[in-house]
Write a structure and sequence with these properties.
By secondary structure, the protein is α+β, with helices and mostly antiparallel strands. The chain has helices at residues 14-23, 33-39, 87-100, 111-115, 134-137, 144-154, 165-174, 180-195, 233-237, 240-252, 269-275; strands at residues 4-8, 43-48, 53-62, 65-68, 80-81, 103-108, 119-129, 158-160, 199-205, 211-220, 223-231, 258-260, 278-286. Strands 1, 2, 3, 4, 5, 6, 7, 8, 9, 10, 11, 12 and 13 form a 13-stranded mixed sheet that branches. α2 packs antiparallel against α8 (180-195) and α7 runs antiparallel to α8 (180-195).
Length: 287
């Protein structure tokens, strides 16, 4: 049997696969089989040895053409191993992907994968360590964050957790933020992550107790990922999402966790910088 091989998702030994993800140096939520099953109906794994190194690959077929890409809510792609992956293995994995499709594009934090790309473009996001006291996290200099939070508070916006999947999916439907297929995916992903006690849905409510914004957080490897955010026009005008993120930070401060802001694409850099978050690169990769 070849040391590196393709295995269909239906044939993968999920115990061994998920064990590799759990023990990986660069492990994250996006590599687990249950997460991939929730967001992708057609993915396979590239596996080296007895699941010592693995890489999930999501494929899309359209009129016979096969493409490799990120699925909705699958923010990042990576090669997972409990040891540092050598260049030879990365090249072998990339060659296998190329044998499947000529149309390959995805996002990743892995600089080594990006270095092998035909084209790659560097972007930046932020991460915030929550171990500090809450009062030490928001060390605002220009008061941008304070202004947003005061705006939210002045409109009597309040926040809570324990939102059910139907809450965030209904809000997505009302705001027309997602199509029907993506709403079904969000409902499935939210439900399974909550059952596994890895997911939480936080909501912002107006003074009439109406849900106006919601965020799905899913955690693993001491990292919290913002998977999806949705807000109404009312929430946007009241800066409710700023207050909701701050509320989450406040309730999780002094914990050995890192909050990844990757999912907050519409937030200005000023917000992250005032919070004391650290900038990190990620890559749009074309093979």
């Amino acid at each position: 049997m070849s040391e590196i091989r393709i295995i269909k998702n239906s044939d993968i030994d999920t115990v061994l696969w998920d064990r590799c993800i759990a023990r990986s140096q660069n492990g994250d939520i996006f590599g687990y089989s249950w997460f991939l099953d929730a967001v992708s109906d057609n993915w396979f794994g590239i596996v080296k040895g007895n699941y010592r190194v693995v890489m999930p690959v999501s494929v899309n077929k359209f009129f016979g053409l096969v493409s490799v890409k990120n699925y909705k809510f699958q923010s990042k792609v990576n090669i997972y191993s409990h040891k540092e992956t050598d260049k030879k293995t990365i090249q072998e994995f990339i060659n296998i992907i190329k044998s499947v499709s000529k149309n390959i594009s995805f996002t990743s934090e892995n600089k080594k994968i990006a270095d092998f790309a035909k084209k790659n473009k560097t972007f930046y996001s932020y991460k915030l360590d929550l171990i500090r006291l809450y009062k030490d996290i928001n060390h605002s200099e220009t008061n941008f964050v304070i202004k947003q939070l005061n705006n939210s508070e002045s409109h009597k916006t309040f926040f809570n957790t324990g939102i059910l999947p139907n809450g965030i999916t209904l809000l997505s439907s009302l705001t027309k933020s997602l199509n029907k297929k993506d709403i079904d995916t969000l409902r499935r992903l939210s439900a399974i992550s909550l059952r596994k006690n890895l997911g939480q849905i936080y909501g912002a409510f107006n003074q009439h107790n109406r849900l106006i914004a919601a965020v799905l957080f899913i955690s693993s490897h001491f990292k919290i990922n913002i998977i999806y955010t949705v807000q109404t026009k009312e929430a946007e005008s009241k800066k409710a999402l700023y207050g909701l993120i701050d509320y989450y930070i406040k309730t999780h401060s002094e914990k050995a966790l890192t909050l990844d802001f990757f999912g907050l694409t519409d937030f200005p850099e000023q917000f992250f910088e005032e919070m004391g978050a650290v900038k990190y690169p990620w890559y749009k990769i074309k093979l």
